[in-house]
Amino acid sequence: MAGLPTGTVTFLFTDIEGSTRLLQDLGPDRYREVAEGHGRILREAIVAGRGGEVRTEGDSFFAAFPTPTAAVNAAVRAQRELAAREWPTARSVRVRMGLHTGEGVLGGDDYIGLDVHRGARIAATGHGGQVLLSSTTAELVRDDLPDGVALRDLGRHRLKDLARPERILQLSIEGLPAEFPAIRSLETPTNLPAQRTGFVGRREEVEQVKRLLEGPGLLTLTGPGGSGKTRLAVESAGALLDDYPDGVFLVELAPITDPLLVPSAIAEALGVKAEGLRPVQDTLRDELRDRETLVVADNFEQVIAAAPLVADLLDAAPRLRVLATSREPLHIAGEQELPVPPLELPDSVALFVQRATAIDPGFRLTEENTDAVTELCRRLDGLPLAIELAASRIKTLPPAAILGRLERRLELLTGGPVDLPARQRTLRAAIAWSVDLLEADERALFRRLAVFAGGWTLEAAATVGSLETDPIDLLGSLVDKSLAVRVPGEAIRFGMLGTIREFGIEELEAAGETAATREGHAGVFLELAEAAEPHLRGLDQVRWLDELELEHDNARAALRWAIDTRRADIALRMVGALWRFWHLHGHLDEGRHWAEETLALPQAVHSIERHRALIALGGVTYWQEDLAATGRAYEEALAIAREIGDRHAEAEALYNLSFVPAYGGDMEQAVAILREGRALFEELGVRRGVADSIWLMAIVARLEGDTPTARSRAEESLRLHREIGDRFGANDALHVLGRIALVEGDLATAWTCFLEALANDEEVGNRTGMGIELDNIAAIDTAEGRHLRAVRLAGASEAIKEAAGGHAPPPFIDLPDPREPAREILGEAAVTAAWEEGRAMTLEQAVAYARSADD
Known about the structure:
By secondary structure, this protein is an alpha/beta fold. It contains 37 helices and 16 strands. Strands 1, 2, 3, 4, 5, 6, 7 and 8 form an eight-stranded mixed beta sheet that branches.
C-alpha cells in the first residue's frame, strides 16, 4: 500500500474494550455515532503522527509510523481526546493500545513478519484506556516522551505464540487513569489444584479434549465413577491455560445436591459476587459475556437439572467453554460427549507401579510379578481408581496375592445389579474388596465418615464416628488404603473421593446407621454454627468466619438433611446462627434460599427458633434491599416474641423492625419503635442492644441538626461497643462518628474514623463495609475539593457493593453523590471518565487508593 513506511517501523494496534456489550446497550444507531467518533479521533491522531492506516476490522485499528516517537505521540493524543469527548453513553469509551517497533516488511498491502504479531499480542494483553509498549519501543522513546507522560515497567510476561517472554511497559498519561488490572498475559487466572501425583497415559485424550473445545461451547466427559474423568479434565484444563487469557476455573459440584445452588457455585469459583436481588445467573451472563474463559464443572450428574444454566451461559458468552464431567450427558444443544475410556496396557501397569511405589518405595516391577500386575490391571478393566485401590495393598500383599483375593471377591459379587455397566461393577468390587479388608472399627469409621461434605477434622471424625479415642491411627489406615485422603495444608484435615464416598453411604444404609450418623453430623455443625454466632460481631470474628467458610459444605449438607427429613428444629437453629456469616462473606442469595426453605416447613412452628430464623431472613433480605420481605420477617418475629413472652427476643425484633420505616424515610415511626426496643434492652441489661440503639439515635440527632447530641451519642455507642468487644458495632459507630465530624468540619476526626473502619472491614473481608467507607472518604474529598478522587472512589464503591450483593445501609446515612459538585467544576466528560475508572478498579486497588493521598 502506497505511503506505508518500511524499514524500522513502529506498529500501533488498538480496539474498543467491551464493544459488543456497548453495541447491545446503545443499539445500532447510537453505537454508530460512537464508532464514527472513535474512528475520527484515531485517524486524526494517526495523520498527525505521519502514520499510515494499514487496516481496520470492526472497532480495531492497525497503523504504522516511521518513528516510535511519532507513534507514542499519536497514542497519547488519541487517549486524551477519547477521554475528553462526551459520548452518548453513561460509560466512557475505553480503547486499549499496543506499540512495538520492529522490521516493517510489506507483503502486498499489509505487513508480514513476527514483529507484527508481537505488536498485536502486546495490545491484546491490555485494558481499556491503557497504552502498552514493548521494551524495544520504550527504550527508543524513553528520553523523548511528550509532556506529562511517563513510563511504568510492568515486568516480563509470556505472550501467546511467542517463544520468549516480553518486557512490557505502560504509558502513564497525566490526567488519565494510571492503575489497571493485571495485563492479560499467559499468567492465566486459575484455581486449578496442584496435582500431587504424576499423570499417567491419556495423552491422546488430552489432545482430543483440546481439539473438541475448539468447537461448540460444551464438552462433557462421561464415564462411571473412578474412570478418571476429573483427573483428565483437570490435566486438560492445565494444558489449556495459555488459550484462555481470562481464566481457567474448576467448579467442584460434588458437595452440592441442589441444582439451584449451581449458579452460586460457579460464581464463587470465578470470583463473581451476587448483585442484590438480581439473579446470580444474570450476573454471570454479564461477567462472562466478553471473557475468553474455560469453566471445568466437575461431578455434574448430581445436579443435572441445572443443565439449562450451562446452555444459557454459553448463549450469552460466545467465547466461553465448559468442560463438564458427569456420569451422563447434560443433553443440551451443541453438547459434545467424550466417553473416558479405561487405561490401556501398558499405561494401566505404569499407574499401578507409580501408586505402589508411593506406598512402598522398595516395590519394583520384576519378571516374577509382571504377569500378576498385568493381569490385575486387565481384570480391573484399566479403571484408575480400582487400580489405585489395589496398589494400596502392596505393603501387605504381593501382586499375585492381591490378584487372587480380587478374583474371589469378583466371583462373590457376580450376583450384583445387572443394570450397572461392567466397568462400574468391577469398580464397586474393587472398593468393596478394599473395605472388606478393614478391621471392624476401621470399617465402621469409614462408612460414617461418608456423610461429610468437603472434608473433616479429627475432632469431627471422632464425634460422628462415635469414637472414644483419638481417630488418627484409624484415619491413617484409611489413607494408606486409599479410602481417605489427607487434605494439603497446615491444619490436620481429611477428605474422601466422591466415588468412594458414595460407596460409604451405601455401606451406612446397609448397616442401618444413616439416621443416627446424619443426625450426629448435623449436630457437629449446628454446634459449630451456634458456637461461632456470638463471635461474628466480636474481636475474633475473622477466625470464626474463616472456620465457617471452611465448613460451609458440611453446613449445607446438614441443612439439606434437616430440611429433607423435616427436622425443622435443627434447620431453624442453623439458619438463625449462620446468617451473619452469609452476610459478611457474600452468600446472601444462598442464605435467603436456606432461610425461606426452612421457614416453609410445616414443622417450623411458632417458637424461639422460628423467631431467630425470621431475624436471619430479615437480615439477609435487608442487605439485599428487599424491604417488603424484611418487614414481613421482622413483624412475624416480633409477634412470636410477644406470643411466647421472650422479652429479649422482643427487644431484638423491635430494634430490627425500626430499620424498615427508617429505610422508607419515616423517621418518626422508626424512632418510636427504636425507643420501645431500647427501653427493653436497658431493663434486661443487654449492653449490646443498648449500644446499637444509641448508635441509631445518634443518626437521628444528626439528621435533626443537633450535632452536639449526635456526636455525644456516637461517642457513647463507640465506647460501649468497644467495652463489650463488639467489633461490628464499633465499626458502625465509627461510620456515624466520622459522618458527624464531617458535618462539623472536623475532617481530621472523620478521616481517622473512616480509615479505622476500612481497616476493620478489610480484615474481615466485608465488601459492603469497605464500599461504605469508600463513600465516606469520597465525602471528605468532595469537602476538600478533590473532586476527581471523590468520583473515582464513589464509582469503585458502587462496583464493590454490587459485587457483594447488597447496597445497604439505608439512605438515612445520606451520603451525597460526589458527581454533582464535580460536574459543575470539571464537566460531564471528566466526571464520567473518573466514575468508570473507579468502577474498573479491583477491590485491592480501590482500598489502596482510598488510603493514599493521590489525586
